[in-house]
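Q: Got a minute? One more chain.
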Amino acid sequence: MSATLAIPDRPPDRPARRAFNPWIVAPVVAMAAFMEVLDTTIANVALPHIAGNLSVTINESTWVLTSYLVANAIVLPLNGFMSAVFGRKPYFMGCMALFTISSLMVGLAPNFTALLIFRILQGLGGGGLQPGAQAIMRDVFPLEKIGTAMALYGVVVVVGPVVGPLLGGWITDNYTWRWCFLINVPIGVITLFVLSVVLAEPAHQRRIKLRETGIDYIGLGLLALGLAALQIMLDRGEDADWFSSPFIRICAVVAALGLLSALIWEWYQKHPMVDFRMLKDRNLGLATLGMLIFGAVLYSTTALLPLMVQTLMGYDAHEAGMVLAPGGIAIFFLMPLVGFLVPRVPTRWLVTFGVLVNIVALMMMGSLSLQADFAAVVWCRIVQGLGLAFLFVPFNTAAFGYIRKERISDASGILNLFRNIGGSIGIAAAVAYVKNESQIQQNFLAAHVNPMNPAYHSAIGTIVGALRRGGVSAAGALHAAQAVLYGLVKNQAGMLGYIHAYHLLAAAFVLVIPIAMLLRTPRFKTAPAGIE
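A: Always. Here it is, folded:
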């Protein structure tokens, strides 16, 4: 069944409004996207407070994150279609308005059910902000400054997830978890007002008349079903012990069938909701694959480093967040430099340099020990930030280098979708790998902690002697010494799990080098030939 609504094009006799300076438009749309990215992580540290306030378990409270990510994932690839139906400016502002209103409702939610409903609405509104902002930035800057536009967008995407937990923890500790969402309201209202003034509808924006094309309900349904099942599986899999859970197995089957069916169906539709045929463009296809790996490494290390220092090194949540902060600052200052280099250095060499620096950073992480100090961990993240800056900007620049302006919204939605999917897969796989590998290493180490090993007797004797001198009984000292050794073995095994995970991520990053070698450097002096 097709809809009958028709959206008329702008009357030909109405002159297009003069565009504002790109440096006025770009920061405003960047702020809108930054708020959305921030909300993917700002509530992470507030979950115990939400659970206690709304009388649910900690495990149930994680649906606050899952519901948002699922709704977000469904909307991301629809950016091109929705922009073509409603217009880029109306759609972007509509998403901003929905995100702001739903943020208010989440902050005022009287119970957990209401909170989840409003959180889904917030995810639906936020899903159009990332690709919309990227498309607008690519559009308002001239072709020779596309690197600058992608650098500004890169700051939003890469720094946002780092700032989220820090800001969320500070707000929760000093006010209440509700302000993690209510803070969006005044910023959203101001951003909406400024957008209404400075943002213009591009003259080249293609328009779709639904009366003629209809709505691809089957493609939309298959895509939504597949993405929702995939996101739920990745987000809930660790808690449910992965494929030992029937629920996770069902999600995996639904995700695989739904996404494969959606891809096949959309590929052969005349008017698809998501035009996956755009991936036939070599640069867009390669950049999308590269961003999938980029997202996996970025988000997995962003999750693993704080987890490692908290569980093994005794850091609190604030200190763990501070481990990531210097890396975010490094990215913030490096992005403009990379944007400057993009039109001057071939894309493949910029990406290759970024890959090599990331491999060095991951090997540095893999050389850490339980005795590593704060500075050592921070330097790993700073070096990684250098490499990430040299990956994000060139990949995004190359992706749009041969795409016509009227198809930028479609390309941006696909690119952002795959980066987010990569991030979800990376976090889930990395956390599961560390858990399993730590158990394997613990079994291996424990085999050497036995009365037949002279080193065992020496360690036990030293600990027992120290405890006895402190007034502990012989039996109590022996029991405590064995507990201390068990704790040491467990921590060392856990550290080995993280080390091996970092080494594996470094090996995975090598796959990006052949992708980089196949990328074409965009033509910055003439308009791209593009694809239809």
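A: The chain has 22 helices and no strands.
Q: Perfect, thanks.
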